[in-house]
Design a protein that fits this description.
Blueprint (H helix, E strand, L loop, with lengths): L1 E6 L2 E5 L9 H19 L12 H26 L19
Antiparallel strand pairs: 1-2
Protein name: Condensation domain-containing protein
Pfam families: Condensation
GO biological process, one term: secondary metabolite biosynthetic process
Length: 99
C-alpha cells in the first residue's frame, strides 16, 4: 500500500494485492470500506468501529460449513450411486486386458 502525492491536494492510493490473497468479491468489499472511511474522514464524521469476530469464532463457523457440506455431499452421492454394482469394473462393460 502506498499513498502517492500528485500535488499538495491530490493523492493516489496504490494497492498491490496478489490474486491468491484477495478475490473479486473481497476486493469490492475492501474498496467499499475504503470509500466509506475516506468519505467519513473528509466530512469530519466518525464511523463506529465494529469489532472483528475472533479467530475461534471463524474456526467454529468453518467447521460448521464443512460438516454441513460433507453431510449434504454424502447424501447426494449415496442417492446417486444407489443400486450400482461394486467392484473395479462394475461400471464399464468392456474386455479387460490381462498380463
Amino acid at each position: 500500500i502506498k499513498l502517492l502525492s500528485r500535488s499538495h491536494d491530490k493523492h493516489v492510493l496504490l494497492l498491490t494485492i496478489h490474486h491468491a490473497v484477495i478475490d473479486g468479491f473481497s476486493i469490492q468489499l475492501l474498496l467499499q470500506d475504503l470509500s466509506r472511511f475516506y468519505a467519513a474522514v473528509t466530512s469530519g464524521k466518525h464511523l463506529p468501529v465494529v469489532e472483528a469476530p475472533s479467530y475461534h469464532a471463524f474456526v467454529d463457523f468453518e467447521r460448521h460449513l464443512v460438516s454441513t457440506r460433507d453431510k449434504a455431499a454424502h447424501r447426494f452421492w449415496s442417492n446417486s450411486v444407489q443400486g450400482w454394482q461394486s467392484g473395479p469394473h462394475a461400471l464399464v462393460n468392456m474386455p479387460v486386458l490381462k498380463a
